[in-house]
Amino acid sequence: MSGPVLEVQDLKKHFPAEGLFSSDPPAKAVDGVSFSIDEGETLALIGESGSGKSTVAKTIIDIHETTAGLIRFNGQDITNPIRQQLAEMRSEIQLVFQDPTSCLNPRRTIRKSLLVPLKATGVPRSEREERVRQMLERVGLNDEYLYKYPHELSGGQKQRVNIARALAVEPSLLLLDEPTSALDVSVQAKIISLLEDIQAEFDLTYLFITHDLSLVRNFADETAVMYLGEIQEQGPTDRLFENPRHPYTRSLLSSIPVTSRQEEALKPDSEGLDGEVPGARNLPSGCRLHPRCPHATEDCAMRHPEQYDVHDRDVRCIAYEDGADGFDRLREQAPIAGGSDGS
């Protein structure tokens, strides 16, 4: 196959205000996001809570209707798909949610939960039972789990069942929405290892959504950093972690917990960000980060930055409009008065 498996162009998802607040501006949860993922690769979408990461995944799979933009899957336009496309998408694109417990019907055995997507996608009855057993075995659970109920399983086992359910319909793209955030650290590592193994075995393509940066460095081929509905920096994961260029990326990476002096030495210098993430209905003027950015100038408050091509990545910061040494110049500029305290 030529071209990317998934291509997203200028995707927007705005939620209009309703009821007593119907005169309020729309919440711009996703506001012009673009990326593509090649076959067999992983793109990590990272950022703080409220940045719009999960909304991107839910819009791709049509849980949310697209406000604007274009979504292509294997070259086919699936933006706001028609019924026939939806049927095809159910087997080709699968979403693994954050909370493994809420995704399983407590009144169904694991066997029945795994059979549901097979029936929905038209898998012949004669193949269903064997498919269920194969996928359960593939995620490290034996036949004894077929007749258990969700309350009898640990959090990690429930997530393995959810991954098995996604794999049962033989997808080519998995949207992984915080698949390990509800799990203990030791279990997280096992789930990530499982995802790596099945990606290699089935040649799967992943969109991996997370706020846990420690999971990304050795798992994703490329990383996109989101803030308030926009991608601020995007590029190869190893290079982005080694030399983050955007102030927001530097702040995120500097906050990763470390266990050794060697790891501490690899962390980028960052003055950090002040204040809370603004609401998506009341976005700041100019650069959306400027009320929290320690390097913000008056220009940042007035101008909305484009994404600039900086050698190996794209960076949304006006400091880079004249070249790749933008961050060095940014640190030399005097910040606006109160620019780092949210005022």
What structural keywords apply?
single chain, 343 residues, alpha/beta, Rossmann fold, eight-stranded mixed β-sheet, four-stranded antiparallel β-sheet, 11 helices, 31% helix, globular, disordered C terminus
What is the CATH homology-level superfamily of the domain at 6-225?
A: P-loop containing nucleotide triphosphate hydrolases
The CATH first-level class of the domain at 6-225 comes to Alpha Beta
Q: What's the CATH architecture name of the domain at 6-225? A: 3-Layer(aba) Sandwich
Radius of gyration: 21 Å
Q: How many individual β-strands? A: 12
Let me know the largest β-sheet: 8 strands, mixed
Describe this structure in words.
The chain has 343 residues and is an alpha/beta fold. It has a domain at 6-225: Rossmann fold, CATH 3.40.50. The chain is 31% helix and 20% strand. It is built from eleven helices and twelve strands. It has helices at residues 53-60, 83-92, 110-120, 125-138, 155-168, 185-202, 237-242, 247-254, 261-266, 298-302, 326-332; strands spanning 6-15, 27-37, 42-46, 68-73, 76-77, 93-96, 173-177, 205-210, 222-227, 230-236, 308-310, 313-315. The protein has an eight-stranded mixed beta sheet, sandwiched between helices. Strand 7, helix 6 and strand 8 (205-210) form a beta-alpha-beta unit. It is globular, with a radius of gyration of 21 Å.
Helix-strand layout with pairing:
Layout: E1 6-15, E2 27-37, E3 42-46, H1 53-60, E4 68-73, E5 76-77, H2 83-92, E6 93-96, H3 110-120, H4 125-138, H5 155-168, E7 173-177, H6 185-202, E8 205-210, E9 222-227, E10 230-236, H7 237-242, H8 247-254, H9 261-266, H10 298-302, E11 308-310, E12 313-315, H11 326-332
Parallel strand pairs: 3-8, 3-9, 6-7, 7-8
Antiparallel strand pairs: 1-2, 1-4, 4-5, 9-10, 10-12, 11-12
Helix pairs in contact: 3-4, 3-5, 4-5, 5-6
